[in-house]
Amino acid sequence: MGITIYASGRIGLIGDIARLIEDVKAIAEESNWAHRILDDDFDEQPNAVLSGQGRDGSAAVIEGSLGLKGIIVSIDPGAEPLSILFDRSGTLTGIIEQLSWVQSNGQSERFTACKTQFGTIDTHIRIIELLASLKDKYITDLIVNDEGAYWETRDRRILAEKRIALGHCLRHTERVIGNIESSGDEVLDPETLAARIEQALLKTDTSE
To answer: Residue ranges per domain, the chain?
Structure first.
């Protein structure tokens, strides 16, 4: 749960990927955003898999080639990084979406997504502005689904109201779950716990 920006589309010219990366890199460096560039070999067939555990003890790592070129920018520690990555057909995607696509033999949907709920409102706006500039210059068929409605309205007030409303719902849900978990010593299986949470949410007033 959280306000998320979704984007899908295809870059007009594969040869423009390198220029797009340089443009976004320049913006990132000027704005002091952390960034990472991916430069896989498009001649190599994507073969990435999710490994159960990395050598450093991390929970999981991606091994093999995703077949992607592009850049990932981290604008705000409270928001998810924005992946601007393309496969050899020019399709815009994120890392997890591309991994799913590879493992499903091209049957899953590809897009990029960035949750901004826990970042600043200005971060959300900067991401929308960046996507708008990429649509104008590189991805003319870009489709954006902005749960904060800023893409459609360019209205900061509407975005702020949606963030406040969602924040209120999140805090309410946390209180409901907290009450369920502290109501006794019994251990609940996931399905029973989910059912109790749903029942509790239906019975309570979010205005409390």
So the answer is: 4-154, 159-203
